Amino acid sequence: NRRLGENILIPVVCLFSIGTCYILDKNAATWFGGFQIGIELLILNGIITFLGLLMISSRPEVNKK
Question: pLDDT by residue (tens digit) across 40-57?
Fold first, then answer.
């Protein structure tokens, strides 16, 4: 179990994910030779958000006795 706590970076990660997907959606046709991204943006948004939150989370301390 990982914990996020009250971290100011949580909204930053979520907004970064949305912004990245927006930029990718607007430029995908020119960057990828005409490929239009559709529902794949939902998957990409989830992956970016998950990885970002994973990077800023921490493991709880375990007391070994």
Answer: 999 999 999 999 999 998
- The span from the CA of 59 to the CA of 62, in Å, is 9
- Taking the model in full, what pTM does it have? 0.81
Helices 40-56 and 9-31: crossing angle, nearest 10°?
140
The amino acid at residue 9 is: L
What is the number of other CB atoms lying within 10 angstroms of the CB of residue 42? 10
Helix ranges (DSSP H) in 1-65:
9-31, 40-56
Distance CA 54, CA 13 (A): 10
